[in-house]
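Researcher: Please translate sequence to structure tokens.
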Amino acid sequence: MRNVVKELSDLNKCISKYISNGNDLLRIFNLTQIHIIGYLLQHEGEEVCQKDLEIETNLKKASITGCIDSLVDKNIVYRKQSETDRRKNYIYLTDMALKHKKDFEDRGNLLNNKIIENISEKDLKIFYNVLDSIRNNIKEISK
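Model: Translation complete:
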């Protein structure tokens, strides 16, 4: 019988390898950084705080902080402290990142489309339902 954890790990490695083998803008980012950039692009013009990114990525504060620090170093995002709550930082895309917005979106869409190529809508729906069940099962045992 196939092991789900191994299969998910292998899938993650395949996606990471696909990204790192590219010769474009996305190859300098890991999957979490790409996820953060995509989320910020989708919420452009909105106030997105670090906590929003923790929830979106299901990662802990320290992990998100490291990803954001790396994106700051790469001049992709910047932090701005809330004027009303000094404990809260908002995360924004830099002008340089926004200049490459179309590239980020196109490459993200290309990756997503390649992943779901030749998979029927019915199978995708089943896949997403299974992912939701796996996620919920893990959340239950993680409490």
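Researcher: Any highlights?
Model: The chain has a mean pLDDT of 88.
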